[in-house]
Amino acid sequence: MARELWKGNEAIAEAAVRAGVQAYFGYPITPQTELLEYLSWRMPDLGRAFVQAESELGAVNMVYGAACTGARVMTSSSSPGISLMMEGLSYIAGTEVAMVLVDVMRGGPGLGNIAPAQADYNQMVHGGGHGDYHPIVLTPASVQESIDLTALAFDLAEKYRSICVVLTDGSLGQMMEPAEMPPMQPLKTVYPNWAVNAEPVRPRRLLTSINLNPPDQEVTNLRISRRWQEVEANEVRFKEYYLDDAKFAVVGFGSAGRIALSAVRAARAEGIPVGLFRPITVNPFPVKAMDELSRKLEGMLVVEMNNGQMLEDVRLATRTRIPVEFYGRMGGMMPLPDEVLTEIHALVQGPRTTEGHPRDRWLARMANMN
Amino acid sequence: MDIVNTEIEQVVYQRPRSFTDVSTHYCPGCTHGVAHRLVAEVIDEMGLRERTIGVASVGCSVFAYNYFDFDFVQSPHGRAPAMATGIKRVLPDRVVLTYQGDGDLASIGTGEITHAAARGENITVIFINNANYGMTGGQMAPTTLPGQKTTTSINGRDVETQGYPIRVSELLATLDGSSYIVRRSLHDPKNIRLAKKAIRTAFEVQVRGLGFSMVELLSTCPTNWGLTPLEAALWVEEKMVSFYPLNDFKVHPAIAQFRF
């Protein structure tokens, strides 16, 4: 199929359609609204379910209902709206049903603004809803990757009866790039043996997240935790650039990783042995790959569009074995390649240390921005 | 010798097919059991058991799914109409019901119920109004009567500071999307029979694709009201019915043609 010019949000919407999404429920919020708008006509045209819900609470619980029938189902929102969905996400995780969630992140906290950010990392990767559960979190860095990871998200969600998040941002959602759509997949016809879909003859089925008996809840949580071990063993994805002979590495996901790549290329042109490690799955985090990588490096620079959220996972994965520095822009600001290149220069020139916290040093460097 | 004459033996009362064979967790004198039974009888009579999906809510009826022998899901507090929407939109030929109390539907879930009605979602809502939060031990609900004592209105609901009760049926009946909105009561046999007829009508509305239907049922909560079952039934009759009139608030014109 030929490459076409696609806007990020609409590309995700069409990719979901091609992947056989049967139902979409959403609510307007900038900068994800084009996704909702696109599906508002595309889904009915195909005879599939679409509802513009009364709120993100309504949307996520419509998703919950449809997910309980075993259907391929999706919602999308942006940071403040995602916060509202957390109740439903916890219930969906506790009920062990599959859904895809697209978070087109924007500046926060609070109402913040509609510019791109990556500050939902902790909310998506480390928490959000209450209780012991982990969503799978995929982070595209281009429109093409948004398409590819959306298709993958449905497969992973169903394989692991899990929430799978496509974690993107206002920049990737709004940009237009040439990209290739996959062919249209047929809608699913075989449903899992837990689907609450009122088929005749068989015994009744029940889906709930309530376990008033604590030992039963613990058994459920053990099952969810062991399933997560399978995800960690099988689904880690990342991309490496110029790392074969590198002594330094920049680590960044999504837009920040893409911007960092420009800086890495500029540094390479200057003869600096630096590469880029870009996690695709930030959950499960590429712990093993990053641990191994750190053993052959002299230092790392983590670049994010937040105040150092993934940074903590990098520090855990590398066990603070090597010096790690951090550079972040936040609140809707994006780092420029030149800024990252300056940070690479500083990392290479040193002094480097494994003492203290990279966030403190970064905040000190940002002192002139008050 | 068998002395039972099978010729004249008649079954006059038995467990509906749509019920499971378990004992109730509801308090003595609580009318949840009556409401459950009416729903089960209607689903049996209409032959819908194998194509019905129930959505339980949060409150005493969180365990409604234990009693119904058909598919069920259990919703977050107040969100049952949204879950029911998700189910109905992907499985439009199934019969979908929510079973919600007044804390669930009339307080935390006002957004979901209002917009499900406004969209004319083709679902049936059984709404239990017992004027308090039952499961958490009798706190003031949006439906608590002025002056009624609860654990969070110990001197009686003071409308000056705690506001007025919400008459949900009247509210939802103003929405063009609603097709059948009525209030009935479960305090005596006559009213129970009328309630069953209303529940039957509500499911007929859904089966015929006419849109949103809701039956509000005035119900007892003897434990939290501090009354005996009989006193509780009389309290419904004397106090609740005057505040929450038993009436048809929205009746789709096509319902007049129903024959069942």
Would you mind describing this structure in some detail?
The complex is a heterodimer of chains A (370) and B (260). Chain A has 370 residues and is an alpha/beta fold. Chain A has helices at 8-18, 33-45, 56-68, 79-95, 121-125, 143-159, 170-174, 214-234, 254-269, 287-294, 310-317, 337-349, 358-365, and strands at 4-7, 23-26, 49-52, 73-77, 99-105, 136-138, 163-169, 176-179, 206-207, 238-241, 248-251, 274-279, 281-283, 299-304, 324-328. The radius of gyration of chain A is 21 Å and the shape is globular. The N and C termini of chain A lie far apart (50 Å). Chain B has 260 residues and is an alpha/beta fold. Chain B has a single domain (32-135, 162-253), classed as 3-Layer(aba) Sandwich (Rossmann fold), CATH 3.40.50.970. In chain B, 34% of the residues lie in helices and 16% in strands. Chain B is built from nine helices and seven strands. Chain B has helices spanning 32-45, 80-90, 102-108, 110-118, 159-162, 168-173, 189-207, 222-225, 229-243; strands spanning 52-56, 71-74, 95-101, 124-129, 178-185, 212-218, 248-251. Chain B has a seven-stranded mixed β-sheet, sandwiched between helices. In chain B, helix 1 packs across helix 7 and helix 3 (102-108) packs across helix 4. The longest helix of chain B is centred in the last third of the chain and has 19 residues, at 189-207. The mean pLDDT of chain B is 96. The interface between A and B is large, with 39 and 35 residues. Strand 9 of chain A pairs parallel with strand 2 (71-74) of chain B.
Quick overview:
In chain A, strands 3-2-4-5-7-6-13 form a seven-stranded mixed β-sheet, with helices on both faces. A five-stranded mixed β-sheet of chain A has the order 10-12-11-14-15, with helices on both faces. In chain A, strands 1-8 form a two-stranded antiparallel sheet. Chain A is built from 13 helices and 15 strands.
Described by strand count, sense and barrel closure, the largest sheet of chain A is:
7 strands, mixed
Rg over CA atoms of chain A: 21 Å
State the CATH architecture of chain B.
3-Layer(aba) Sandwich
Our count of helices of chain A gives 13
Instruction: Output the strand order for the largest sheet of chain B.
Output: 2-1-3-4-6-5-7
